Amino acid sequence: MNNEPNKRKYDIYTILYKEQYRLKLGFLPLILSKGSLVIAIASYWLFDGQSVFLAYGVLLLLYYKAIFNLTKDGNQLSSFVYVWLAKLNKTLRTKKQKK
């Protein structure tokens, strides 16, 4: 006899399916985000020589851990470069259709 109220049973597949949408996206969306572009410009202006790459890598890692929040929950294509390319594609299509 179990006195506990009816608890929903979760199997591992259901948990993994739901939790996959909370994971951060990978390297390409990180590189194509506004923050990455700002970090690249700031690193180029503030540092010189080989230290540009080191500073960019360290700052990008800190950005990924602290600020970057794009996940698979429907916002995966909302990074800066993706949005810009989509607008460019839309304008090219409309110009082509007018001809």
Count of extended strands: 0
Average of per-residue pLDDT values: 80
From the N-terminal CA to the C-terminal CA, the straight-line distance is 76 Å
Compute the CA-based radius of gyration.
21 Å
**Unreliable parts:** none
Q: Give the DSSP E fraction (strand runs of 2 or more residues).
A: under 5%
- By helix and strand content, what is the structural category? mainly alpha
Notable features of this structure?
single chain; 99 residues; mainly alpha; 5 helices; flat
Could you describe the 3D structure shown?
This protein has helices spanning 12-19, 27-31, 34-46, 51-66, 80-98. By secondary structure, it is mainly alpha-helical. The chain is flat. Helix 3 (34-46) runs antiparallel to helix 4. It has one domain (26-98). The protein contains 5 helices and no strands.
Please describe the topology of this protein.
Blueprint: H1 12-19, H2 27-31, H3 34-46, H4 51-66, H5 80-98
Helix pairs in contact: 3-4
Outline:
With 99 residues, the chain is mainly α.
